[in-house]
Amino acid sequence: MNRNNNNRQIAVLPEPAQVGALVVNGAKHFVRRNPIITGSYFAGWLILLLVGSGTQLTAVQLKEYNNIMNTINLQIEYDAAGEYGRTRQAYQASKGWFSCDRMCQRLKIRMQDSEQELAAIRKEGQARMSDAKAGAGLWSEVGVSEVKDSFWQYFASGKTFAKRQSTWDMMFMGMRSMARGRDESWIEFGLKLLMQVLLNFSVGLVMALVMFVVGLWAVVRSYQPNPLLAAVFFLAAAVAAFSFVATYLMAVYGAAAASVYGVLKVAETSARAQLANDQQRQRVGPNQARPHND
Questions:
Q1: Which residues, 6 or more positions from 41, have their beta carbon under 8 angstroms from its beta carbon?
Q2: Could you tell me the pTM of the whole model?
């Protein structure tokens, strides 16, 4: 009697060399279809290599920069901010839901005066700081360092958003899986979670890039450059930031793809071993079950 119990088919994964060839062909196709994006990517890395940390200040520039920055009295701004906070708190405590008596009106005027004073002090400090930056120059180590610090702050915020969102997604996906009675394998659950984590990182870092570009112009304008220089620096910084974020996301997606490929390879090897064991048992079984003739 023929036994055809092993009709299972095992999906054969391509070898690493074949996967590498597919990736290379896909990259070539993307480059041909999107020359502007590809050109911007490589231009961004070229800008990062050429600009580096910016031009170093001369001794005269450094002295002038420090002299102007030392004229900014932070203690006055700190005191003004404290006064505004106290007057605002007093005003908030005196007013009713829909009314404001004479005492409340006097506290409101006092709060408005302290607010205007704080705004004037901050405006003066920002003007002096802008003069110091103008003396240093937009392409100097001061300007480049400020832009880099701004980018890293947004970048860190984007990663924090992705990690926090992934934690919540993992918790809710686990709860939904338990509610369904765990009718999916751990591989399926892991793949779903991985896709959600990749989506969170993509959204978080793209949002961080957009917010950085939006706030970049305020940083550029504070150095009082000429319009052409400002436009060139703004475009260069935006392209460089795009290149770094794209590289980071490609690295994350590449690591995830390699991990998935490794897990599937292990599953394929295990399935092959199980199938071989089943076939071996079927071949040995009839010999062990021979009837005895008396």
A1: 242, 243, 246
A2: 0.73
